[in-house]
């Protein structure tokens, strides 16, 4: 479960494209931040994706990936040319195929091989035709789905939605959000040549005039239970309301937002499947395991990363693709895992009402984030690389120190998770699996 958004330059306050995504996955699944340099390969080289091996490109571009710890592919990311891609699980009437490329594999392959959103669109559809999509995407339990993608560069964006080998694509005109549902209807710019005929042959629609991709191909039952209707509406409505004035802060606020139907109830006492900031704990649904906002402007794009689950209690930190060591290499996955786990321990302490002076900590985090936003906004077009490195160092080191302090102080505080019996049991089980605490404290 996820939510992804884009606002083109005609809809933002800065005139730059702004891209954002929450990755919602099983709550114990670490989402790692990995940076991979540009590489060259000999002819005939192969690349092992999550389940299958395919031909490698002669050259791959430098990429920033936010990836599930056990997968080759990525939930979201960017490359050195400002190409950004995020994928969504969608639920369709087309039967699942055998192990093939995952949606996350397709994200990484396109980032490594393409410079623009249009190139990425064509590559993903070509790979779908050649290799197909399929395989278990779940971490601790089996979960299969088809995929949709939001693909953006510094000037343009596309929505690509798939159902097995079939697909439809829509060029983004100003603002767009996607969630765990097909959303392209009758108006698409490109499509698989057999898209309509296949639907007619299956009697999902009567004729070409009757065809609507989302209506004809959606598995309505699973889509309904995904909670995507509420999240899609929240994202779309907020983008529409602020069209022309959308900022990085706008995207952060949306990624942190909770369904208004929760009222004053805390999402740390109950599941929040219908919230963009998704909280696990129910019969269905996942938990937000990572958050990402990108402002795309030549020559350097600015990325805002939490590196953690649960954005409503996390700090977005600025990142640039300069020569720095704040993000981990593929050879440093152990370090990347430790980075995510420290922040996840903080989340579990919040769930257990154990955090020492929580409000003070959250206020300090908000002040750090606000300071980073102000410093970044003041850079202008004449930014020096040394200025970027200074801002990053201050932000990433300050957040690390804050978290180490609050986690160390909070560990001894023995309290209980609040909420229903089901909710308490859910998070007790999840936290025990991560091995953080003795069950007596839960």
Structure, explained:
The protein has about 450 residues and is of the alpha+beta class. The chain has a single domain, classed as Penicillin V Acylase, Chain A (4-Layer Sandwich). It contains eleven helices and 18 strands. The protein has an eight-stranded antiparallel β-sheet with strand order 3-8-9-10-11-12-13-15. A six-stranded antiparallel β-sheet has the order 14-1-2-16-17-18. It has a two-stranded antiparallel ribbon with strand order 4-7. A hairpin with a 2-residue loop joins strand 12 and strand 13. Helix 8 crosses helix 10. The chain is globular and about 65 Å long. Residues about 440 have low confidence and may be disordered.
Short description:
The protein has 442 residues and is an alpha+beta fold. It contains eleven helices and 18 strands. The longest helix has 26 residues, at 385-410.
């Amino acid at each position: 479960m996820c939510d992804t958004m884009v606002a083109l330059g005609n809809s933002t306050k800065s005139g730059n494209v702004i891209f954002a995504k929450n990755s919602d996955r099983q709550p114990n699944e670490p989402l790692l931040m990995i940076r991979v340099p540009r590489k060259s390969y000999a002819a005939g080289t192969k690349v092992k994706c999550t389940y299958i091996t395919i031909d490698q490109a002669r050259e791959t571009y430098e990429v920033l990936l936010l990836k599930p710890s056990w997968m080759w592919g990525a939930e979201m990311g960017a490359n050195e040319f400002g190409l950004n891609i995020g994928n969504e699980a969608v639920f369709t009437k087309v039967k699942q195929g055998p192990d093939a490329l995952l949606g996350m594999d397709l994200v990484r392959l396109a980032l490594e091989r393409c410079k623009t959103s249009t190139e990425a669109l064509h590559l993903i559809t070509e790979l779908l035709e050649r290799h197909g999509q399929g395989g278990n995407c779940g971490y601790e339990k089996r979960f299969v789905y088809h995929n949709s993608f939001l693909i953006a560069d510094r000037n343009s964006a596309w929505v690509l939605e798939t159902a097995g080998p079939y697909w439809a694509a829509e060029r983004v005109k100003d603002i767009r959000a996607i969630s765990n549902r097909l959303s392209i209807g009758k108006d698409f710019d490109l499509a698989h040549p057999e898209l309509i005929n296949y639907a007619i042959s299956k009697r999902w629609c009567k004729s070409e005039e009757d065809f609507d991709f989302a209506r004809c191909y959606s598995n309505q039952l699973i889509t309904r239970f995904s909670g995507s209707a509420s999240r899609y509406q929240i994202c779309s409505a907020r983008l529409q309301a602020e069209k022309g004035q959308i900022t990085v802060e706008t995207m952060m606020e949306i990624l942190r937002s909770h369904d208004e139907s929760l009222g004053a109830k805390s999402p740390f006492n109950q599941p929040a499947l219908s919230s963009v900031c998704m909280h696990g704990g129910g019969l269905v649904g996942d938990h937000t395991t990572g958050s990402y906002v990108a402002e795309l402007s030549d020559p350097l794009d600015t990325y805002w990363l939490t590196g953690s689950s649960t954005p409503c209690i996390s700090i977005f930190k600025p990142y640039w693709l300069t020569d720095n060591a704040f993000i981990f290499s593929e050879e440093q996955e152990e370090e990347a895992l430790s980075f995510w786990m420290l922040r996840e321990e903080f989340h579990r302490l919040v769930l257990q009402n154990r955090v020492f002076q929580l409000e003070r900590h959250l206020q300090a985090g908000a002040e750090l984030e606000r300071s980073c936003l102000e410093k970044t906004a003041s850079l202008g077009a004449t930014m020096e690389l040394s200025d970027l490195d200074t801002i990053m160092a201050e932000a990433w080191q300050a957040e690390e120190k804050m978290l180490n302090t609050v986690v160390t102080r909070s560990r001894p505080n023995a309290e209980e998770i609040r909420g229903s019996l089901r909710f308490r049991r859910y998070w007790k089980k999840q936290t025990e699996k991560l091995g953080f605490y003795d069950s007596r404290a839960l």
